[in-house]
Design a protein that fits this description.
G-protein coupled receptor, 11 helices, three-stranded mixed β-sheet, receptor, cell membrane, 75% helix, G protein-coupled receptor activity, globular, Olfact_rcpt
């Protein structure tokens, strides 16, 4: 326990319970997921930049989404892996904790904004195909991506600032594998109820606000697809949206469980499981979701592999 008049200058991350052997197994599993995530998302970014067949708004947004996924997992997983290797408790300074929490929330908010943009892009592609190139021109695409990044980082300045205005004097033990805001608020000796309510409203605005255009867009998309007379036409139209729709369900589903709740200080084990879905599983699935269901990406990837094999033979 700490003095009632002092605030923590560093925190101890409790991470995962269990023996050293269990930690070694978890390290191997998460290290594999981390490497696969970085490799998969980097491949997507590279083929989107190199292959001219993917020089369209949909794949431009996909490249940024892959960059965000790689960033999200790189903010959290290396710290988690280092904690699994240490024999004792892992410590993190107050400055590092502030930086990690801000980057994690800012990149996550940017991702939500971008997924909303991608849903609108699919709406225009399916419902107004003749005007698609006019509406989703390069200037529009660059503008909406820039706004998404700027909004994501600016919108999280006050929430992180407000979180660290409290005095953390109950303890400096964080029952998590990174600087989670809910667990930080549990350590505060101050009344956090009002701030938690404001953070709840902001989470509602960001998550539901970006989910609403996705719901509206896909309502129109599905309605338009069902009106296509041929089965092959319906399959082709749906294939352009299936990957993003799947990712919307996975991404928003896990984040709704974690962030949209009136009480930030819920059970630590529940928090850890949902955080693993967001930081490890979802970034890992991103390359598979967008390649296995997309013929253009598979063709570009196949051509890239063949070119690499040819270069190795020469």
């Amino acid at each position: 326990m700490m003095s009632n008049h002092s605030s923590a200058t560093e925190f101890c991350l409790l991470g995962f319970p269990g023996s050293q052997e269990r930690h070694q197994i978890l390290f191997a599993v998460f290290f594999f997921f981390y490497l696969a995530t970085l490799m998969g998302n980097t491949v997507i970014i590279m083929i989107v930049c190199v292959d001219k067949r993917l020089w369209s708004p949909m794949y431009f947004f996909l490249g940024h989404l892959s960059a965000l996924k790689s960033t999200t997992t790189s903010i959290i997983v290396p710290v988690m892996l280092w904690g699994l290797l240490l024999p004792g408790m892992q410590t993190i300074s107050l400055t590092a904790c502030v930086t990690q929490l801000f980057l994690y929330l800012a990149v996550g908010t940017t991702e939500f904004a971008l997924m909303g943009v991608m849903a609108v892009d699919r709406y225009v592609a399916v419902c107004s195909p003749l005007r698609y190139n006019v509406i989703m021109n390069s200037r529009t695409c660059i503008s909406v991506v820039t706004v998404s990044w700027v909004f994501g980082f600016l919108s999280e300045i006050w929430p992180v600032y407000a979180t660290f205005q409290f005095t953390f004097c109950k303890s400096n033990l964080l029952d998590h594998f990174f600087c989670d805001r809910g667990q930080l608020l549990k350590l505060s000796c101050d009344d956090t109820l009002f701030t938690e309510f404001v953070l709840f409203l902001m989470a509602i605005f960001i998550i539901i606000g970006s989910l609403a255009p996705a719901i509206v867009s896909y309502t129109y998309v599905i309605s338009t697809i069902l009106k296509i007379p041929t089965a092959s036409g319906r399959r082709k139209a749906f294939s352009t949206c299936a990957s993003h729709f799947t990712f919307v369900v996975i991404g928003y589903g896990s984040c709704l469980f974690l962030f949209v709740k009136p009480k930030q200080t819920q059970a630590a084990e529940y928090n850890k499981i949902v955080s693993l879905l967001i930081c490890v599983l979802t970034p890992f699935l991103n390359p598979f979701v967008f390649t296995l269901r997309n013929d253009k990406v598979k063709e570009a990837l196949g051509d890239g592999v063949r070119r690499c094999c040819q270069l190795l033979k020469d």
